[in-house]
Specification:
Length: about 230
C-alpha cells in the first residue's frame, strides 16, 4: 500500500496509486508512506526519488551503530517501534528516507504514530510544509507513546512491589509475569536509546536543516528524561 501526501493549491492531497507520480510535481510531495508495498510501488517510488530503498531484511540487519547514514541523494534512518501486546511487546523496524524536502517511510504493519500524522496532515495542511516536519512529528508522537509505556510499566512494578511487601504467596505464574515485565522494561529502554542515537546523528548531519535543531534538542531532552525514569 502506498500513500502519497502532497500539496495542491494550499490543500493536502493524498494518492494511493504509484501511477500518480507521473502527474504530481516533485516539489509538491511532502510524504510517501509505504506500508507492505508491492514491487511496483517500491520501484516507482525509487524512480521518483532517484535513490534506492532498503529491503526489510537490510534494515533489520543493520547494526545499531550504523542505523543512520547519508548518501549524496538522501538521509537514511532506521529505528524500531514497539507494539504493545497482551503480555509482551513486539518490535517493528521502520525506515525513514529524507530526499530534499520529501520524507519516505517504509514499514510492514500499521502504526498509531503514522495514522495520527495522516489525519493531522489532512486536517491542518499549513502545519506541514516539508517532509522534515512530518518526520519530527512522527518522532514526537512516538516518544509520547514510549512515555505512556514507561508509565504502564511503572504502575505494574508498583503492583508487584505491593504484593511482595504484603507477604503474599509467590506462585510460578507470578515469577513468569515478573520475568516478562523485566523483558518488556529492557526492550522499552533499548527502543528509547535507539531513538536517542538516531536523533543525535541527525543533529550532526550537515544535510538536515539547522532550523529544526531546537526541536530535535527538545526531543533529546524528553528521551533523556524517559531513560532516567
Amino acid at each position: 500500500m502506498i500513500g502519497i501526501f502532497y500539496k495542491e493549491n494550499g490543500q493536502m492531497m493524498v494518492s494511493q496509486s504509484e501511477s500518480d507520480f507521473a502527474t504530481i510535481p516533485y516539489d509538491n510531495v511532502i510524504w510517501i508512506d509505504l506500508l507492505s508495498p508491492t514491487g511496483e510501488e517500491k520501484r516507482a517510488t525509487e524512480a521518483f526519488l532517484g535513490t534506492t530503498l532498503q529491503t526489510r531484511a537490510q534494515a533489520e540487519e543493520i547494526e545499531s551503530s550504523s542505523r543512520f547514514y547519508e548518501t549524496e541523494q538522501a538521509i537514511f534512518a532506521n529505528t524500531n517501534f514497539l507494539i504493545p501486546g497482551p503480555d509482551e511487546y513486539n518490535e517493528e523496524t521502520v525506515s525513514f528516507i529524507l530526499t530534499d524536502e520529501i520524507l519516505t517511510t517504509l514499514r510492514e504493519c500499521p502504526l498509531k504514530s503514522f495514522t495520527d500524522l495522516q489525519r493531522r496532515m489532512l486536517a491542518f495542511p499549513k502545519m506541514y510544509d516539508s517532509g522534515h516536519v512530518a518526520f519530527l512529528s512522527i518522532l514526537e508522537q512516538r516518544i509520547d507513546l514510549d512515555a505512556d509505556m514507561v508509565e504502564i510499566v511503572s504502575k505494574e512494578i508498583t503492583q508487584f512491589t505491593k504484593k511482595i511487601s504484603l507477604g503474599e504467596d509467590i506462585s510460578e505464574e507470578f515469577l513468569i509475569d515478573l520475568n516478562q515485565m523485566q523483558d518488556n522494561t529492557m526492550l522499552i529502554r533499548e527502543n528509547i536509546v535507539d531513538k536517542q542515537r538516531v536523533i543525535s546523528s541527525i543533529l550532526k548531519s550537515a544535510r538536515y536543516p539547522k532550523e529544526y535543531q531546537p526541536k530535535l534538542n527538545v526531543l533529546l531532552k524528553d528521551i533523556s528524561s524517559l531513560i532516567n525514569h
